Structure formats: structure tokens, C-alpha cells
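Async update (no meeting this week)

Hi team, since we skipped the sync, here's where things stand on the single-chain job. The sequence we agreed to prioritize is pasted below, unchanged from the tracker. I ran it this morning and attached the output directly underneath so nobody has to dig for it. Comments welcome in thread, and please keep replies under the output.
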Amino acid sequence: MMLRRDYRWSMIGGTAAFTAVFLFMALAVVALLSFDAGTSASGILDAYTLRILRFTLYQATLSTLISIILGLPVALALARQRRFPGRIWIIRLLAVPMGLPAIVGAFGIIAIWGRQGALNTALLSLGKEQPFSIYGLSGILVAHVFFNLPLAVRLMLAGLERVPAEYWRMASSLGMGSLSVLRFIEWPAVVRLVPGIAGLIFMLCATSFTLVLLLGGGPAATTLEVAIYQALRFDFDPQRAIALSLMQITLTAVLLGLLSLFPSQDAEIASLGRPIRRFDSFGIAARVWDGAAIVFVILLVGLPLAAVAASGLSADLIRLVSAPVFVRAATTSFFIALLSGTLAVLCCVALIAARQAISSKRRVTAPLRFVSVLYGAGSSLVLLVPPVVLGSGWFLLLRPLGDVNLFAALLVALINMLMALPLVMRVLEPAIATHRARTGRLSASLGIATFSRMRLIDMPVLWRSLAMAMSFSMALSLGDLGAVALFGSENFVTLPWLVYSNMGSYRTNDAAGYAFILGLVCLLLAAGGVPSSKSSKGSA
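Output:
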């Protein structure tokens, strides 16, 4: 139930938000399709382009397989060993790469695995003549596993923890061994999740930009997004950039279509709600195996993070933060993050309000149902057209108007806003839907207008969810290098671009300090967006 004027304003806001998002992306794609480079397109699909496509799929496949295969024992170990000290902190450690900027994680990986890193130093001390090379396929795989293995572990662990406690009591009473437990309980709980997790990781690796840009090591190890960036930034070959962009859009569309076929999680199983107690975790062999898996993931994730912290703290942070270039970069980054976060939240609120307005009608017709689905999909359009493709389209669209750098800050903010929309939508829609289900009918019966309802009823309950969405979107924007890469210059500097430029100029100490500051700020923002258990009880 909703007042007629509220319904009208909700539909106007949702339509305006969806139209703005759609037009921003459509204009970029149209600019790519209509750009006349003055050359024939007959040689676009040459051997080099096909090699890039093959490498994109090849590295994404390997990264996915390694993340799943190595992540499964870790998830089983954390699910089985539920009482050892520090377990909750290890699970929280696995969440750190999800909120860490890719360029900061890459810096830590180079500090451990690079030519002068800890691993190669140890290998050289043992007499190895050929140290491990972090650049090329090996470096891309290491970086992707660093970021995606913790994601796989947390998703599989969530599935294992949904297994009812009665299953473990029954397994103990039947005297089932470790292999039988794995076969009849653990594997059925995980196998339903593996296709969806693998599809998600493959999507992330196939569209990876920053990690491949930093660790690719040349044309032999280049993905489609990096090739688009190189075609415009260094070669200025719009025709090739257009071809690669269309290939990237096709690839992401196919991946999204396949990903939609997989369930995100298995169905909940009825349980009496008893606390889970595993009876198969007390054997010596189980403890040794599980301990080795847990130590492995601690080293995999913890060592690069420790390297970033150690290198950053050893830098002259006072000199770095007082430098004019840092002040300018920080100001630009926070302006972009604040603008993109605000727009992302407003856009999602408008889309959600329109969907809620449609669902409030007693009879939802087929056209209205289609509009609701369309508005829900509007927040995920950026998954179809990656940021580098959007930046390329707007780069070509704005070139006739003069210096593209004049529009750089606004374009980066808008692209970052689009990147944050799927995350913000997932945070806000459940909270708003639950709150409206509780208060919508009473508000309408009392005739409370839209703005009065927002001030008196909605904001006191939803502000925590809005703050969480704002924090996440700002952290994502602060750490993004993909949208900045096309427009970064001496006149337009952000914190990720400052780290990247210092790494490219071999000013390692300065890059370490800036990476530490950037990573700390992004992690604080991401942590600040997670509500505590006490506060979450009062939110919708």
C-alpha cells in the first residue's frame, strides 16, 4: 500500500536514475561503435588479438582452478577446527584482501615474490641461479590467488557452517571416518557452491586490470582490458581499442549469462538450532592436516600484508604526507570517492524505491513486472561493460571538445559510481525492503508524505545501512586504478595513480609509504561500514 503521490515520485526517481545510468553507458558504447579511425576493420581479428583472448581465458581458468583446489582444504579445516584460539581473527584476515586496493596487494606480493623479495633472497642464499619471476603468467596467478582464494574459502566455509548440527551427531554415532564424512556430508554441502564460486572467480580474473597491468610483464601476458588501455594510452590505435572493447563486452556477457545459471548458495536445511560440535576434529592426523592448511593460508595472505605494513612504516611518512603532490592526490581522491559514493547511494535508493512502489500495487501487470526487473538489473550493467571500456568510449567521445583531462575527475567519479552500484544495491535493498514491509502500510494509512516519512521513519532506522553502503563505495573508489589509468597525468593525480607512478619510476620507498596509507584508509572505510552485532539489531 502506497500513497498515489509517493508512487508517482518513486517511479519518477527510479526512471531518472535508470535512464541516467543507461545513457552514460550507452553513449560510451555508441562512441566506440561510431568512431571512424580511418582504417579498415578487416585486420582487427589478427593473431595478436586472438592470442590476447586466449591468454585472458587461460589465466582466468588457471587462477580459478588454483583458488578452488587450494581453498577447499582450508575451508574444510576452518569448518572442522571450530575451537582453536584465533580462529575468528583468521577468518577476519581472509576478509582483508576483499577490501584492499589491487595496487596495494600487488605491492605486497612484489615485496615477497619479486626479484628483490623475501622468497628470491632465500632462494639465492640456497644457491639457486634462476630466482622466481613475479612478472608474467606466474605473477598474475599468484596475485589472483592472493585475492580470490580467501573469497572462495569464505563462501565455502559459509556453506559448511549451514550444515545442521544433527548431521555431525549422527555421523559420530555411526562411527563415520574422515573420508566418509567428506563423502556424505562435507562434499555435498560444498559441491552445490563450487560452480557459482568458480564462475564468480573466473569473471573477476577475466576482467582483471590492475594486477595484469602491474605484473603482466609485456605483450605475452596481456588481457583484453589491459590491451584496450595500451591501445589508447600508448599506441593511440582506436580501431584496435574498439575491436578489443567489443570482444570484452561479448566475453563479459557470456560469462554473466553462464554465471546466472548457477545458484549462489544451497538451500537451507531444517535444523533444531543446536550449537554445532564436530566430533571428527580431535584426531592427530586431522589436526596436523588442518593446521598445515590454516598455516598455509595465513602465510599466503599475511606475508604480503605484513610486507606492505613493514615497508610503509619504514618510509618517511611525515615527508610523504606533507608533500604537495600527496595533498593534491588525496584531495582529488576523496572528492571523487565522496561524489561517487553519494551518487551510488542516491541512485540505488531511487531504483529500490521504484521497485518497492511497483511491488506495493495490488495487481502487478506484466509491463510493470518487466520494469521492476529492468530497474533491478540497472545496477549491474557495469558488469557487462567494464570500466576500461567505459573510459575508452568517453575518451573518444570527449576528444573533439578539447583536453579530456578537464573532464577526468567527473568521469572517474561516474565510472566508480557505476562500479559501486552492484555492491550498494546488495547492501541497501534487503534493508529497505524489510523496513518498508514493517512500516509502509501504517505510513500510508496515516497519510505521511514522502519527505516526512524519510525524516521521521526511514532515516532513524536505515542510516546504518546507508552509512555501510557509503563506506564500501568510497573504499572501492579510493582504491580504483582502472578508471584513472586512461586519464592519469601530472595534472590529474589520485592516490592509486601516485602509487603506480612511483612504482614505475622505481621510487620504491615512496611507493611503499603511499601504498601503506592508501591500504590503511581503504581498510578503515571498509571496516567502518560493517555494523557491530549490537548496532545491527536496531537496523532493518
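Quick observations from my side:
Confidence is low (pLDDT under 50) at residues 39-43, 266-272, 530-540.
The radius of gyration is 25 Å.
Reply here if anything looks off.
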